[in-house]
Amino acid sequence: MNSSILEKLADTVFYYTAYPTGRQRLAVVEALLKKHPCLREPDTSFSGMYGWQQRLTYKMANYRSKLKRLEVPCPELDVNSLRRKLPGERNPAKNCKRPKKAEVNYLPPHPSGETSDSLEMERQELLNEVKKSNNTKVIQEKMAKTFSIRRLEIVSESPAADDFRERWPALFCEDGIKEEFRRITTMSLEQSFMYKLDHYTPKLITLMKAKGGVLGTTLSPFLYRLSQNQSIEEKRDTVIRSLIVYLGEKVEDLFEDCQEDCRSDARQHVLKILVVHGAEDPADVAIVVEGKEMIEGCGCTAKACALLMGLIYALNLAYPPALRYTFEVFQKLFLDLDGIKLSPKIQALKLKLLA
Fold first, then answer.
1. How far apart are CA 185 and CA 249, in angstroms?
2. pLDDT tier for residue 91 given thresholds of 50, 70 and 90
3. pLDDT band at 44 (very low <50, low <70, confident <90, very high)
4. How far apart are CA 14 and CA 18, in angstroms?
5. Range name among 77-81, 122-126, 227-231, 245-249 with the lowest pLDDT average
6. 165: which residues sit within 8 A by CB, 6+ positions away?
7. What are phi and psi of 257, to 5 degrees?
8. Residue-level pLDDT at 313
9. Count of CB atoms within 10 A of residue 109's CB?
């Protein structure tokens, strides 16, 4: 009976994700024992769930191995197969490519009836379509159709951002990033980000005002600006900058401020939001990735932060270590992606925001 139950659980779990996290496996076991209390084991330390969690962990690994042997087409398994790894890295746990930022469609299969060759032809046609004007609908349709081969390319090959832009120019615009983020996470990017940012702003300001000492002194210029009659874009910019300081990180690690007549050289930045100040403030906001300006004319810094998150998901990039808490807030509090698993610092911040 145990074997049959685990086989059914593994089959159902695999429908949602090939590599469930510990929390996801725990949720499955909790649901199983709530539905069938008679399966609970006499284990008072872990509420009778520990054995089932362990068995489900091993069962999922065996289930993946079985599908690989049967050569069932699944990009998430194929990209991690030993034959695709370097000779010195042929270990099942070595450099395993799996969702790390709550991606729902991390490596989806090709559409029914399509192959890599047919989708490559679609990509070639897409290069011609982006050169035409008033062609948004056709571009969106072809981008949606080629989503699977684009994800396979970015996850398995990890190309340079500039090289990837040459192959997929339709992705590197505001609408392209928003739609790609929606395909990956099934969520709205800008709407979700701005809503939660505005929702948490009053409480964030209250928390910052309560800070004293060196941190309170550092935050005082931001709080002064917030007390002025700012526009909504200026207020969001100030809140994000002050939040970075509140988290113990540096504003200059995310934003590069410069004047219009002395524009900063993008080549010296790996991942940055370039804010160009001029007669209008700001005159331009651009996103820099790997020394290239990928998206220009973002309008305001808050919108640039949202689009940067979309670009990170679209290019499968890692967060900068110097800004790990800032991007954790962006992902888990503002976008509400994997908001259950938080670091101690962000968990404490979330509790204060919800108090």
1. 27
2. low
3. low
4. 5
5. 77-81
6. 171, 172, 292, 294
7. -90, 135
8. 97
9. 14
